[in-house]
Write a structure and sequence with these properties.
This protein is of the alpha+beta class and 331 residues long. 64% of the residues lie in helices and 8% in strands. The strands form 3 sheets. Strands 5-6-1-8 form a 4-stranded antiparallel beta sheet, with helices on both faces.
Length: 331
């Protein structure tokens, strides 16, 4: 095995010991009915054959009571929001595709993230349990006010609604590197090819997670720049989310490749943005400008780096740091 492949094997083995995978299955009932027959009537009256020209949808509980269902939906969606804020995708999906499925989380944070998910799940299920005893009555009241659509709207029972809402947090999984020693009967060349393909896939997934973390942090830095420039919507979430993105960056590289560029970016986010507050920004032009410049610089640096890199590029970058590359990025 050549030196570069061995280096990447070492990085992947390090990551396998530093991270675990979480899977959360989530589904909700949106409470919206599609009125097929009403749409057909409308299309006929419009004298068109385009079956996609009009899609009629209506809230099952009507405008009066839909907010009660929407409250429950919001509780369930908070589970996914928390998951996405605290983990990274471990997916082979292409750019722009939905990256659901298994999520990457540092081993050291598994208990914390699991507790956060279970707490939110309990809140969501409690909200659903509060709604369901009143569900049939709400449907009856909504149906009485639905006019000409009353016969076409399908009203699910409370039991059916319960089955439509699901939140399942699976037991965390280990990431296991391929162990070709178990297959000693394979020809050495074939075993090496299989091991390399498996290792390359793991590298691709880890690099994709790293890129995702950088892009998410970069996008938040852009929000910080905008708000510190315009000053119309300053909120503490600018600070708290900055700290969260910094932690995600730091956790990833600490467990994977120790990329000093990313560590430097996380350090700057922490020292010049996440350690500030809205009150400090409002009362100190110097503090505000310092954070603004830091956010601009980090955004620029992360944009430049937010591309998956090869082991050769990482090694080259590490050797270049002493020559001032990192200083140039942070100036």
């Amino acid at each position: 095995m050549d030196l570069i492949n061995q280096d990447q094997n070492n990085l992947n083995s390090r990551a396998c010991n530093a991270f675990m995978l979480l899977t959360v299955n989530l589904s909700v009932y949106d409470g919206v009915a599609k009125l097929t027959e009403a749409a057909k009537r409308a299309l006929k009256e419009a004298l068109t054959d385009d079956e996609f020209a009009l899609i009629m949808r209506i809230e099952v509980l009507g405008k009066q009571y839909h907010s009660e269902l929407k409250f429950v939906i919001g509780k369930y969606k908070k589970i996914r929001t928390y998951l996405y804020e605290n983990t990274l995708s471990f997916s082979q999906s292409g750019e722009g595709q939905q990256k659901r499925g298994k999520r990457l989380v540092p081993v050291t944070r598994v208990p914390e993230v699991l507790k956060g998910l279970e707490d939110l799940k309990a809140e969501a299920e409690s909200a659903l349990n509060d709604l369901l005893p009143r569900w049939d009555d709400l449907c009856a009241m909504a149906q009485s006010k639905s006019g000409k659509f009353a016969d076409e709207i399908s009203y699910p029972s409370s039991r059916e609604v319960r089955d439509k809402f699901k939140a399942r947090v699976a037991v965390p999984e280990c990431i296991s590197p391929v162990d070709m020693d178990r297959f000693g009967s394979l020809p050495a060349s074939l075993a090496n090819d299989i091991a390399k393909a498996s290792n390359d896939q793991l590298t691709s997934q880890l690099e994709a997670a790293k890129t995702e973390a950088m892009k998410a942090a970069k996008n938040h830095m852009d929000v910080v720049v905008k708000q510190l420039s315009e000053g119309k919507r300053l909120s503490e979430t600018l600070v708290s989310l900055s700290a969260l993105h910094s932690k995600m960056l730091r956790d990833l590289v600490d467990g994977y490749d120790n990329d000093p560029r990313i560590i430097a970016m996380a350090d700057r986010i922490d020292s010049e943005i996440a350690n500030q507050s809205v009150d400090v920004w409002k009362n100190s032009d110097h503090a505000r400008l310092t954070s603004l410049k830091a956010a601009e610089t980090v955004s620029k640096g992360l944009k430049a780096m937010a591309q998956p890199v090869t082991p050769e590029q990482v090694q080259s970058t590490n050797q270049s740091l002493a020559g001032g590359l990192l200083a140039d990025l942070l100036d």
